[in-house]
UniProtKB/TrEMBL annotation, chain A:
Residues making up the signal peptide according to the UniProt record: 1-22
Lineage: Eukaryota, Fungi, Dikarya, Ascomycota, Pezizomycotina
Protein known as: GPI transamidase component GPI16
Pfam families documented for this protein: Gpi16
Record flagged with keyword Protein biosynthesis: no
TrEMBL record, chain B:
Gene3D superfamilies: 3.40.50.1460
Signal peptide interval: 1-22
The keyword Signal is annotated on this UniProt entry: yes
Family the entry assigns: Belongs to the peptidase C13 family.
PANTHER family the UniProt entry points to: GPI-ANCHOR TRANSAMIDASE
Keyword Cell division: no
Record organism: Bionectria ochroleuca
Name of protein: GPI-anchor transamidase
Listed pathway(s): Glycolipid biosynthesis; glycosylphosphatidylinositol-anchor biosynthesis
Length: 587, 387
């Protein structure tokens, strides 16, 4: 087992949760894990469940009614909803919490199994579901239309225990909104789904000001049926929030958030540097361990235990080496895990709970944090090429381990990005000494391709690749695409910002199951000068006015020579008068 | 002529009942910001300040439709994540912990706004995104953004015209979707936006006249942009200081009188002529009629009871008159001089007023069609004879 202790402790605690979840009830747990470079991962997990019989008779107790009714109305068997912001820095922070299964691509991601005989029925229910969720979660989920919906074949598997017959009649739909912002208005309904509404228990730590100041945050809602062996089937709703806080950033006071230069005497210098002197300083505060408290980092302390939780599960766990001392508020009890670097706390039912992690003496040689585990894969994706017509995508997938990794790489691309699938190629650069040529490996790396081409304005591209990467090697996956020109009215108000392309989803199949998502991409499309139509209108109007005026004059007015025309009455009168005068004079 | 007068009285009471008990039973607020991009921070903080005010005075989130076209609180440029401030003293975080935004981002369009007002939405639209008002709803409609002469820009991409707005309000009135509206707009040349309204029961106010700009109040150096507009700032100042709670007796007139041109730097406009009773009645409306959640209870039973009694009495009269008529018919031979009781005529009237049947409609149609045909015939004859 190459699992480092931190992940295994997380796993054991989640196992603990899942075994406990067999009974009907509610559990919550906060897992704190310091990460390198003075970061802190806080994983909140809330589970509540109800028996399927109660659910069907609309008898909701801990299961949120608002969500339950939507699920019933839209015939949803299993639901997964993600709100994600930021990037998980795998190089520094290691493997993802929950093996990446509680994480979504940047923005909002939704996938669900819907009861439907036909695709049309599934589409109708999907429309109902997305719109209802958009109202509930204050997000523009109603923008998940046909062009943003795909039907994955191999990437997603149902997590719940479904009878075979229901799953055969259920359709999986997946939609993603990479541009969607995630903010306090999404957290508000999220907290309202909790039995304690964020007023007590670990939910009372959640605050938009800290959550949306995090380097990475992901909110997840999973609803699935669970059938414990020999028991009644339950419907379980699991709400998860993972956030990575920068400790020094979080410790800044609310009223003075703007970072300002630290005073000279407050600087902590690295005295081991050869150039260190009174006037030269290399600051180390970022690298050194810090003392922090729960209250400093989250801005408030836990307001007592949520009275609805099952007493068996300790609400707060911290993953730090046992050598580091932690002080907890009075009334709480500490439970140290024997086989991992984890300790958990049971809270007093009343009174605030706070934790203090002391600063570690650098000279003692004790480990400050549990070393992060190496992930199975590193994935990066970026655009290549230049210009407004063509472009390319390059995904760099690295397997750092000693085992071959088999996985599915899934992309859901917008229709205005026209993929040339014939250009799809792979190149392997092995860290190992065995040289390989791309022609040979390409066939070996890509096992299977599932592809559904885009139709303009109707649906996007769906691409699923079954890949296999040998140990200690990197695969470059590339393909080219063409950029469409949109119609004038299809551009959003901020077209010059670019168009977001959803994250690629990587699901490993062996050696174990986990998820990775790349970052989303920003695609620049050729954009017109949006004031141009007005110029055109003005110019055309002028041209029409001029030509019409000329033509009208020609058509309506009679044009004659100056001598042929009628004389003006004044002139003729004058002439007559003159004539009479001359006649008189002559006569 | 006793009976017709009584009938008229009954009809009049039934007709004027809604006016006699002109009270609203619920309050709604539609708060719309229409500008995207970071430098328009102040427009979103305008809207959010209004949101906090109506929420403070008791309108629940379910009856507030909040439209925010851009995300300021979680914008990467915001040095204060998750917060929006409307004052550089940063005393009050408008985004707070509990906020529900109904329409956001690209959803804020002219089409969605008009669909919201007129409730012309698809079946799939969730209730939280609909304006579920009725003829007893008082609505506060607040808009802010960049505008010009008779238009208001949405997201720098499209515009809503003054006529569009007027027609939307008229449709709302026709569909009995409001009782009274307070329309408030803070934009350049704002007063032109309500100049075209023609539906009744609307009080309108705006920040500036034709060819006048609306100005921002002040900037916050750490946020880096202007944080609030002048007109909204002074509105809020009044609402915060004078309207402490729902029991406040301040009127709309008091609010309008508090506008100080030297502070606002533009001429705020008001429009009362759409309101029945004109300026006096409009100005005497309480602030809390629009900004607060006053839940007057309309007791159906009592009204209906009164009406039923009247109808019962009417029925009795009719029965009596019929009896009389029958008696008279039987005594027809005897009665040589008919007294001044007009039994037949009024009874007919009563029948027409109670049951509106289709027969009458058809006869009317037939009469109309005949008249029209006669006219055409005359014209044809005339032209034939002329030639």
């Amino acid at each position: 087992m190459r699992f480092s202790s931190s992940i295994s402790s997380l796993l054991t605690s989640s196992l603990l949760l899942s075994t406990a979840s067999a009974s009907s009830g509610y559990h919550e747990q906060l897992n704190l894990r310091p990460l390198p470079l003075s970061n802190l991962l806080a994983s909140f997990n809330f589970r509540s469940n109800t028996s399927l019989a109660d659910f069907e008779s609309q008898n909701f107790r801990l299961f949120p009614r608002s969500l339950g009714q939507i699920l019933q109305y839209a015939g949803t068997r299993e639901l997964h909803l993600r709100f994600t912001l930021g990037r998980w820095d795998a190089e520094n922070w290691g493997a993802r919490p929950w093996d990446g299964t509680r994480e979504g691509g940047t923005g909002v991601e939704l996938w669900a199994w819907l009861d439907a005989e036909t695709d049309e029925e599934a589409d109708a229910k999907w429309l109902t579901l997305t719109n209802a969720l958009s109202g509930l979660f204050c997000a523009s989920l109603n923008f998940i239309d046909e062009t943003r919906t795909i039907r994955p074949v191999v990437s997603f598997q149902a997590e719940g225990d479904h009878p075979n017959t229901t799953l055969a009649n259920a359709k999986l739909l997946h939609g993603v909104l990479p541009h969607e912002v995630v903010c306090t208005e999404n957290l508000t309904p999220f907290l309202k789904l909790l039995p304690c509404k964020g007023k007590a228990g670990i939910g009372s730590l959640l605050d938009g000001h800290k959550l949306f100041d995090a380097s990475f945050q992901s909110m997840a809602i999973d609803v699935r049926p669970v059938c414990p062996p020999g028991g009644e089937c339950l419907l379980e709703v699991e709400q998860t929030i993972d956030m990575v806080l920068d400790i020094s950033r979080s410790k800044r006071p609310r009223d003075n958030l703007i970072p300002r230069p630290i005073q000279g005497h407050e600087l902590v210098c690295d005295t081991s540097k050869s150039y260190h002197s009174d006037s030269v300083c290399f600051p180390v505060d970022h690298l050194q361990s810090q003392e922090w408290t729960l209250e400093q980092v989250f801005g408030k302390s836990i307001k007592g235990a949520c009275p609805l939780t099952e007493p068996g599960v300790p609400p707060v766990c911290v993953d730090v080496p046992h050598s580091r001392s932690i002080f907890a508020s009075e009334g709480s009890t500490e439970i140290k895990s024997q086989h991992s670097d984890s300790r958990c706390y049971k809270l007093a039912s009343e009174g605030d709970f706070n934790l203090v992690l002391t600063q570690l003496d650098a000279s003692s040689g004790d480990k400050e944090l549990v070393e992060p585990e190496q992930p199975l894969l590193y994935a990066d994706r970026s655009f290549t090429g230049y210009g407004q017509e063509h472009g390319g995508v390059q995904a760099i997938l690295t397997n750092p381990g000693d085992e071959e990794v088999e996985f599915v790489y899934m992309e859901s691309l917008p229709w205005f990005m026209r993929v040339y699938l014939h250009t799809l190629s792979t190149r392997i650069s092995a860290a190992s000494s065995i040289p390989t040529t791309s022609a040979e490996t390409s066939a070996e790396i890509i096992k299977e391709i599932y592809y559904r081409p885009a139709l303009d304005r109707e649906r996007g591209t769906q691409l699923e690749l079954l890949l296999r990467i040998p140990p200690k090697s990197t695969v470059f996956l590339t393909y080219d695409f063409e950029k469409s020109i949109l119609r004038y009215t299809e551009y959003p108000p901020d077209a010059n910002r670019g168009f977001d392309v959803a994250a690629a989803v990587i699901t490993t199949l062996s050696p174990r199951k986990m998820n990775i998502r790349t970052t989303s991409l920003l695609l620049y499309l050729p954009t017109p000068d949006f004031s141009m139509p007005y110029n055109v209108i003005i110019f055309t109007s002028t041209a029409i006015a001029l030509s019409f005026g000329g033509l009208y004059n020609i058509l309506v007015r009679q044009i004659v020579g100056a001598d042929e025309g009628f004389e003006s009455p004044v002139k003729s009168k004058l002439k007559r008068v003159l004539a009479t005068i001359t006649r008189r004079l002559a006569g | 002529m006793l009976l017709p007068i009584r009938l008229l009285a009954v009809l009049a009471t039934s007709l004027f009942l809604p006016l006699a008990f002109a009270e609203h039973t619920n309050n709604w607020a539609v708060l719309v910001g229409t500008s995207r991009f970071w430098f328009n921070y102040r427009h979103l903080s305008n809207v959010l300040s209004m949101y906090r005010t109506v929420k403070r005075l008791g309108i629940p989130d379910s009856q507030i439709i909040l439209m925010l076209p851009d995300d300021m609180a979680c914008n990467p440029r915001n040095a204060f994540p998750g917060t929006v401030y409307s004052n550089s003293n940063r005393a009050m975080d408008l985004y707070g912990d509990n906020i529900e935004v109904d329409y956001r981002g690209y959803e804020v369009t002219v089409e969605n706004f008009i669909r919201l007002l007129t409730d012309r939405v698809g079946d799939e639209m969730p209730r939280s995104k609909r304006l579920l008002t009725d003829d007893k709803s008082n609505i506060l409609i607040y808009m802010t953004g960049h505008g010009g002469n008779e238009f208001l820009k949405f997201q720098d991409a499209e515009e809503i015209g003054a006529w569009d707005l007027a027609d939307a309000f008229q449709q709302m009135w026709e569909k009995k979707r409001y009782h009274e509206i307070l329309f408030m707009i803070d934009t350049c040349q704002a007063n032109t936006m309500f100049s075209r309204l023609y539906s009744p029961n609307i009080i309108a106010t705006g920040s500036s006249e034709l060819d006048q700009s609306s100005y921002s109040h002040h900037a916050d150096n750490d946020v880096g942009v202007a944080v609030i507009d002048r007109y909204t700032y002074y509105n809020l100042e009044f609402l915060e200081n004078q309207v402490k709670d729902l029991s406040s007796q301040k009127t709309v007139g008091d609010l309008f009188d508090s506008y100080d041109i030297s502070k606002i730097h533009s001429n705020p406009g008001m429009r009362y002529d759409l309101f029945p009773g004109g300026a006096d009645v409009a100005r005497s409306r309480l602030i809390t009629d629009f900004f607060g959640n006053i839940q007057n209870v309309e007791v159906d039973q009592k009204e209906n009871g009164a009406l039923e009694e009247e109808l019962l009495e009417l029925g009795r009269t009719i029965a009596m008159l019929r009896q009389k008529e029958a008696d008279e018919a039987s005594q027809y031979n005897n009665a040589t001089s008919v007294p001044a009781s007009q039994p037949t005529e009024p009874v007919k009237h009563v029948r027409g007023a109670t049951a509106l049947t289709d027969d009458n409609w058809w006869t009317k149609k037939v009469v109309g069609a005949t008249a029209l045909a006669g006219c055409i015939g005359l014209w044809a004859l005339g032209s034939f004879l002329e030639t």
